């Protein structure tokens, strides 16, 4: 009965990992390298312009275009888009139900450009969704609870995140690099991405891997690992460890908990 319980727990964790990742895909546009997949394509003029847009009342950001996005948390809201002048009208930005959505005006519309930069100002941050080949980066971010969902082959880089609870869903082949401090962190992996959080000091860490992943974390008190695919996890610290592996997986201590 104990073995069956562990197996059930493992496969449940995998289902959560795949489910969290799959939930992103219908919402966010998928873009391959080169930004050339879809039913139609618009090529940029080469004349780059900046456009500011007034938006408010959002604490969640969903990006469905292959842009370089920078988040700035301060006392203002709104965003600035820098791209070819003929592409600005093809990018829709709406804030509804607390969520800022950035997407093309038509589904499966591909933007052929060398420049697509977006700077977003926000007062509060609770959730970040990225589906595609873009990047989302930030310096200082503060949140009570934070959710990060990566469903494509893009990257997320948060250099100084302060949060009570952090939930991460990695469903593609992208990468996350996180630094800062959190009380607890839960990571569900259903793809084949890279997760670098060796400089994110966490009290407790819960990891469920249902795909193939390379991960680095820092856990002070507790570290729970469930693997039903293949995953290599390195950790810093001396936490209490709970491990269930059905498949291929490794867990290796890399050093002391970061100061």
| Secondary structure: helix percent | under 10%
Q: What's the architecture of the largest domain, going by CATH?
A: 3 Solenoid
CATH top level of the largest domain is Mainly Beta
Return Rg in Å: 19 Å
Give me the count of strands.
18
End-to-end separation:
42 Å
Please tell me about this protein's structure.
The chain is globular, with a radius of gyration of 19 Å. Mean pLDDT is 88; it is low at 1-11 and 16-38. It has 259 residues and is mainly β. Strand 6 (91-96) and strand 7 form a beta hairpin. It has one helix spanning 2-22, and strands at residues 40-43, 48-53, 58-63, 68-73, 78-84, 91-96, 98-104, 109-112, 116-122, 127-130, 135-150, 155-170, 175-189, 194-209, 212-227, 230-236, 240-245, 248-255. It folds into two domains: 1-25 and 131-259, Pectate Lyase C-like (3 Solenoid); 34-125, Pectate Lyase C-like. The chain has a 16-stranded mixed beta sheet that branches. It has a two-stranded parallel sheet with strand order 1-8.
Question: What is the gist of this entry?
Answer:
This protein is mainly beta. Helices cover 8% and strands 61% of the residues. The longest helix is centred in the first third of the chain and has 21 residues.
Sequence-ordered SSE layout with sheet pairings:
Layout: H1 2-22, E1 40-43, E2 48-53, E3 58-63, E4 68-73, E5 78-84, E6 91-96, E7 98-104, E8 109-112, E9 116-122, E10 127-130, E11 135-150, E12 155-170, E13 175-189, E14 194-209, E15 212-227, E16 230-236, E17 240-245, E18 248-255
Parallel strand pairs: 1-8, 3-7, 3-10, 4-9, 4-11, 10-11, 11-12, 12-13, 13-14, 14-15, 15-16, 15-17, 16-18
Antiparallel strand pairs: 2-5, 5-9, 6-7
């Amino acid at each position: 009965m104990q073995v069956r319980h562990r197996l059930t727990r493992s496969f449940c964790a995998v289902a959560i990992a795949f489910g969290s990742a799959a939930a992103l895909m219908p919402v966010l546009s998928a873009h391959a390298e080169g930004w050339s997949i879809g039913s139609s394509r618009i090529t940029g003029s080469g004349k780059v312009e900046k456009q500011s847009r007034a938006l408010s009342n959002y604490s969640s950001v969903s990006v469905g275009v292959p842009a370089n996005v920078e988040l700035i948390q301060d006392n203002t809201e709104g965003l600035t888009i820098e791209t070819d002048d003929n592409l600005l009208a093809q990018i829709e930005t709406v804030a509804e139900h607390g969520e800022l959505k950035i997407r093309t005006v038509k589904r499966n519309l591909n933007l052929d450009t060398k420049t697509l930069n977006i700077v977003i100002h926000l007062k509060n941050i609770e959730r970040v969704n990225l589906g595609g080949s873009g990047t989302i980066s930030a310096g200082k971010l503060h949140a009570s609870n934070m959710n990060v969902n990566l469903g494509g082959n893009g990257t997320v880089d948060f250099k100084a995140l302060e949060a009570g609870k952090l939930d991460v869903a990695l469903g593609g082949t992208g990468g996350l690099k996180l630094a800062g401090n959190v009380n607890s962190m839960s990571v569900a992996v259903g793809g084949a991405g890279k997760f670098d959080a060796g400089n994110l000091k966490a009290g407790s860490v819960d990891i469920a891997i249902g795909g193939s992943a390379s991960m680095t974390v820092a856990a002070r008190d507790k570290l729970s690992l469930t693997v039903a695919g293949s995953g290599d996890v390195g950790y810093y610290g001396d936490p209490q460890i709970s491990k269930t592996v059905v498949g291929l997986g490794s867990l290796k201590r890399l050093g002391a908990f970061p100061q």
